[in-house]
C-alpha cells in the first residue's frame, strides 16, 4: 500500500472523525482491532484495516514505510506512547501525533518530534478561557 500517506490508529468517535477529515486531502489508512469500530463510516473514503497496530506486520501491511503522518488516537495512553516510539524509532515517521487523556504522561514521550494532544489540558484551558470569570 505505497499510496498511503497518513495512518490513523484507533477508530473510536474521535479517530473516525479525524480519519474523515484527513481523507479529504490524504490517502488515509484507519486501523482498529475491533471490526465493529468501522461501522457508520459513510463519509470516509480511505482504507480500513482490522488489526493490532502494535504488531509491526500490521503496520507494514498498512503502508507505514511510505507514510508521512501517523495519528495514534486509541483509548489507551500507554499504547499511544508505544506507537509513537515505534513510528519514530523504527520507521522514522516525521509527523507523529498522539492523544493523551492523562497529561502527566506527556513526560514519558522521549521524542521532541512527537506532538501530544492532551485531552485534560485542552478541556481545562477551554473552560478557563470561556468560563473562567463565571467559575471563580
Detailed description of the structure:
Helix content is 35%, strand content 21%. The protein has 136 residues and is of the alpha/beta class. The longest helix has 17 residues, at 119-135. It has a 6-stranded parallel β-sheet with strand order 3-2-1-4-5-6, sandwiched between helices. It has a single domain (6-135), classed as 3-Layer(aba) Sandwich (Rossmann fold). The chain has helices at 13-22, 56-61, 77-90, 119-135; strands at 6-9, 28-32, 47-50, 69-72, 95-100, 114-118. The chain is built from 4 helices and 6 strands, in the order βαββαβαββα.
Entry summary:
The chain is of the alpha/beta class and 136 residues long.
Describe the secondary-structure layout.
Elements: E1 6-9, H1 13-22, E2 28-32, E3 47-50, H2 56-61, E4 69-72, H3 77-90, E5 95-100, E6 114-118, H4 119-135
Tell me what portion of residues adopts beta-strand conformation.
Answer: 15-25%
- Main sheet, how many strands, which sense, barrel? 6 strands, parallel
Overall 3D shape: globular
CATH class value: Alpha Beta
Query: What series of H and E elements makes up the topology?
Result: EHEEHEHEEH
Task: Output the structural class.
Answer: alpha/beta
Query: Regions with pLDDT < 50 over 5+ consecutive residues?
Result: none
Widest sheet: strand ordering: 3-2-1-4-5-6
Please tally the β strands and state the result: 6
- CATH level-two architecture: 3-Layer(aba) Sandwich
Count the DSSP helices.
4
Q: Please state the CA-atom Rg, rounded to the nearest Å.
A: 16 Å
Overall tally of structural domains: 1
Distance between the amino and carboxyl termini: 53 Å
CATH superfamily name? NAD(P)-binding Rossmann-like Domain
Q: What fold name goes in the CATH topology slot?
A: Rossmann fold
Q: Kindly report the average pLDDT value.
A: 90
Helix share, percent: 25-40%
